[in-house]
């Protein structure tokens, strides 16, 4: 499932995929794969992404009903 919430949060902070990748110490391709729904990040990576974007795990990664 695509992670449009993460993509929107990243865009809201005016960050490119490369910028976010550098902040959380992964490749741009990893950020792209998460946003496309092709990769499930570890909980540690989820936490780093949330911290970088100022969001909670629920806001970015918990599926909405």
TrEMBL record:
Keywords: DNA-binding. Residues 6-60 form the HTH cro/C1-type domain. InterPro entries: Cro/C1-type_HTH (IPR001387), Lambda_DNA-bd_dom_sf (IPR010982). Pfam families: HTH_3. PANTHER family: TRACRIPTIONAL REGULATORY PROTEIN-RELATED-RELATED, TRANSCRIPTIONAL REGULATOR. This is Transcriptional regulator.
